[in-house]
Amino acid sequence: MKRVVSVGFVLMVAFTPVFAGGQGEAGADDGPLELTFWTSHTPPDSITLAAMVDAYNASQQAVRVEMVQVPGSETDVAQLMTAVRGGTGPDIYMLDRFTVAQRAAAGVLEDLTEVMEAVDPALPDAYIPYAWQETQFQGRTYALPFDTDARVLYYNRRMIAEAGIDPAILDSANGPITLEQAREIARAIDQTDADGNYTQVGFIPYDIQFSQGWHYTWGFNFGGRFADLDAGRVTPTDPGVVAGFEFVRDWAADMDPQRVQTFISTYAPPNTPTQQNAFLTERVAMKVSGDWVLKWLEQFTPDLDYGVTYIPVPTSGAQPSTWAGGWALVVPTGSDHVEEAFDFMRWFAGEPGQRMYTEGTAHLPTYAQLMNDDALFDGDHEFFRASLAFASSRPPLPVGALYWDALTRAFSSVTLQQEDPATVLQQVYDEVQPQLDQFLPLQ
Amino acid sequence: MGIIRGRNLRNGLLFVSPWIFGFIAFQVYPIFYSLRLSFTRYSGFGPPTPIGLDNFRRLFSDPLLWKAAYNTLYYTALAVPIGVVVAIVLALAMNQKVREVAVYRALLYVPSILPIFALSFVWVVFSNPRYGLLNHLSRLVGLPVIDWIGDPRWSKLSLVLLAQLGAGGPALIFLAGLRAIPTELFESAEIDGAGPIRRFFRITLPLITPVILYDIILGLSLGLQVFTQAYVIASTGPNTMVGPDNSLMFYVLYVYRNAFQFSQMGYASALVWVLFMVSLALALIVFRWAKSWVHYEIE
């Protein structure tokens, strides 16, 4: 008897997880079909996303979408990868659009070409061309474009005026200022304490903690090209890209790289909440950033006297530059409801969804028709819309995230460690090109 | 006798069978699976493509890997000895013959109960160059202000300091070691005129060497796999660097990047196997070296 009890006990313990796992499966047939939508966006943007999901749910009876906020970032999709591999992935995921090709190549995404052609073969024409191009991998469609954005120079009128400079010279009506002028204005604003550490700065063009001073920003600004898609090559050693890197190296040297880093550690430490962004707390007078900052300023610091203008250009009279990114909606591999998910995506990334998102977050739409709707763009938002006319975009490569990370590393060694741009960019090529070679030809 | 033994063995195995099942399914199988993957190109989806030794060849030309390996060894080389010393000092403090010793023990142990990710968030605030407690204290005693997280020269040391908040765990083991030393030894040494410092170096330290060895091996394994602190402090948001100039890019974090960000499960598996080999080699070296200084007299 004792033996029976002990054996029974062992079996019970061993199979508990099995019994527990079996619960809660029944009874899913009643009511609308449930779909799961994952996003790594955080407030304030995710608040608008949640309202959009509610609006979609209210617009029809067949499907009920539940939005879940998950950990992740532009290039970190660990949560998605493990869930999809384990068969518990979401039906819809919001992915940084420039990584669509890479995730499609890895097999994480469902091919949507057939579903789209059955529902609406003319859908590609509804979107801005570069945004649509980013949803493609080897001629197949893996995503629908969601928002886009543009980068500009934000400037604080009060801080500039207090340094004895008339902020009117930055007015966008006068066209872009030169980087030389920006340097002079910034120097006048820089302040240090008794230890020599910065307490306020004019401009850190290469900051990526509280602004968007990425490698792409300055590479494009100096006319650089980051890839040759026809040749299947990444081109980090392009003269324009190298010139952009040389520019930030010299700027960092002028300010003292480590003191800049200490300024960032002090006023923009890791995990800083949005409302403590160094531009919002008036620690920095100028920064390169995107349209979403308009909403931050409106929400957190409505009294801050700021303006937006073109990113400063290398030489007087040069064409201004910017670049546009944005997100996309995808169906991860293994979803049983690709058609229903696609219907949701068509709404969400279509006219009704993108309208709500543009109004709620000040991002820009990729739905072409909305770009012509003047009512959507008031005040400074209009400047961003106009900027798209000369915007570049990141090359849609199946190694997009890897390339981004390698460039980021090179960028940092050029600024913080003052290494030679041409050398580190050659290292980027040596690292990324062999990985890209696996996917050739690209078209 | 034989029947009872056989039955006991069977029942014993049955009782531990959930563990055996878990061990095989979640440890043994993945270990061998990752070995197989290390010879393939595999995104995590679809069939793996065999590529022979390419992943291992790639190791040599991957600059970031060497940086991660350097950072990890640097961190471990600092964290292990400092950790041993701090734990012994804590254990000695916990072993004082005062009435409130229970309170002291609890106080010294409490930080090690806190999860490391929570401590990491606190550390960011503590180490702020202008507003942080650490620099406030160093200013008071006239030391220079250090950018503990933003300066690549200091960031790894900063994580070593952070790790000392978890020293309460090993300190308890050292405390047990201290309590196991027969008091007669100290008494006779005292009669012979040995002072407290001499007693520590001549009696206490030699007799807790088995615990020191244990702590070194444990610390080595934890140090080589350091991940959470760097992930929380330096790897969040759009910034894909880990710490300034990647100074906090540790080996396991790099493995994670490759596996889940770059979809290179095959390469990540190869990296893990190299780490395993290096860890094993280091542990064997430590064991060999330990023969010359570990004493097991009191057992």
Would you mind describing this structure in some detail?
The complex is a heterodimer of chains A (443) and B (299). Chain A is an alpha/beta fold. In chain A, 43% of the residues lie in helices and 15% in strands. Chain A has two domains: 34-149 and 325-382, D-Maltodextrin-Binding Protein, domain 2, CATH 3.40.190.10; 151-323 and 397-437, Periplasmic binding protein-like II (D-Maltodextrin-Binding Protein, domain 2). In chain A, the strands form six sheets. Chain A has a five-stranded mixed beta sheet with strand order 2-1-3-16-6. A five-stranded mixed beta sheet of chain A has the order 9-10-13-8-14. In chain A, a hairpin with a 2-residue loop joins strand 4 and strand 5. In chain A, helix 9 packs across helix 10. The model of chain A is unreliable at 17-28 (pLDDT under 50). Chain B is mainly alpha-helical and 299 residues long. Chain B has two domains: 2-37, no CATH class; 64-290, MetI-like fold, CATH 1.10.3720. Chain B has helices spanning 2-37, 54-60, 63-94, 101-109, 116-126, 133-140, 155-163, 168-179, 183-191, 196-207, 209-224, 228-234, 251-261, 265-290; strands at 40-41, 49-50. In chain B, strands 1-2 form a two-stranded antiparallel ribbon. In chain B, strand 1 and strand 2 form a beta hairpin. The chains are: A alpha/beta (443), B mainly alpha (299). At the A-B interface, helix 1, helix 3, helix 4, helix 11 and helix 17 of A face helix 1, helix 5, helix 12 and helix 13 of B.
Task: State the main characteristics.
heterodimer, A: 443 residues, alpha/beta, D-Maltodextrin-Binding Protein, domain 2, 2 domains, five-stranded mixed beta sheet, 18 strands, B: 299 residues, mainly alpha, MetI-like fold, 14 helices, 2 strands, globular
